[in-house]
Each structure stands twice: as structure tokens, then as C-alpha cells.
Amino acid sequence: MVSWSNLQSLLLFFGPILVPKALAFYRSIKSRPPSTIRNVPTSTSYALMVLFISGLVAFLSTLPVFAPANIFRQTGSRLQTPGGVLLTRLSAIKPLSAEDLKLREVLDDGGLDARLLYAHYGPRVLTTCPFTNTGDIGAGETYFYYALPSIMAPHLLHLFALGIATSGALSGKEGARWRTVAAIAGLVLGVAEIWFTATYDDRPNARSTRLSEIDFVYWKVQTASSVVRR
User: What is the pTM of this model?
Assistant: First the structure.
């Protein structure tokens, strides 16, 4: 414990050194001329509006209402649950749609492979892809290429918004110098999502026995990507 006498000794030793420096720092702040506040140019306001709208759209896309429903989470079912049981449970929650009936057909025909692809790519890819069926050899690769445009589209729109916001016409020299950095960051994000989707390993999901053990990667990636783009 520091005694009062030790504290006095420290003050006597460091006081003559620190007090003049503190006074000089105070005088430098007091004598500094006030900074001029510049009004934001109209063109820069437009650039900020573009960024705001882009961020708002990305935020809204993370809300559950804009994401496709996950039938396994809706019904609290395991990945191995038969399609008929899934739809029976779903019908107790809401009226069945044509998409629900199509999904049952896909899940029944494809078995466990279809369920793994469902967790990987979501329901829309499985029910709308005309080039393969879930039980076919190489179906996973075909579904990936079919899903690629929908994966790339948000990133291309994000790059477009960044390009407008950092253009010299809107943001001037100050914003234009960030144009390359923004473009690289947007490209890296898009490439990272494509790479992760292409290399994701479905095998842990195949061994899952409970709903909590299933990694519904499609929904996770959609949310994470939208949050990062904000």
C-alpha cells in the first residue's frame, strides 16, 4: 500500500516536470483557432443517401419475414423426418401451398441427400432447379451453379451502390480515393461467400440426430452476408 509520505515524495519529484507540460498543453488547446464547419455539398448528400439505402436494404433482408421459411425449424423436426410427417405438422401451422407440396416431393425422392442440400442451398434452389434431381450424381455441383446468380446478385448490387457513392461526381476527391478500397472489400466479401458455399462440408449434418445439431448454413450465410454489407 502506498503511504501518504511516499505519495508526497512522488508529487515533489514529478510535479515540477508534469505541471509545466500540463499548462503548456492547456494553453495550446485554448489558443487553437476554432475549426470551420463546412456544409455538406448536395452531391455528397446524395452519396450518403445511396449508402443509407444500401445499408437499409441489407438490414431489411436479415429480417425473418424476408427469408424463406425453414420447414424443419417451423415444425421442430429432425433432418431425417419423412416428408409426409413434415407436411402434416406444417398443415397444423398454416395452409399448405404448391411450393410446400413440391418440396415434399423433392425430399421424398432425394432422401437424406435432399435434406442436406436443403440445409445447404435453401428451399428455392431445390424446388425450382430444372437441370437435376436431388438423387442424381453430381447434383450438389449442379445446384451450386444454379444458386450462383442469386448468391452474386446482392454483392453486385452492393458494388454498384459503392461505386455510385464513391464516384468523383458525388463525393469529390475525398470519396473517390476510397473507391478502390470499397471495390476490393466488396469483391472479397462476394468471393468469400461463393468459396464458403462451394466448399461447405455437409457430412456433420448427415450425422445429426437432433434439430439443434443441424447447421442450416443457407440461412446463416444469408444473414451474415447482409449484416457485413451494412
Answer: 0.73
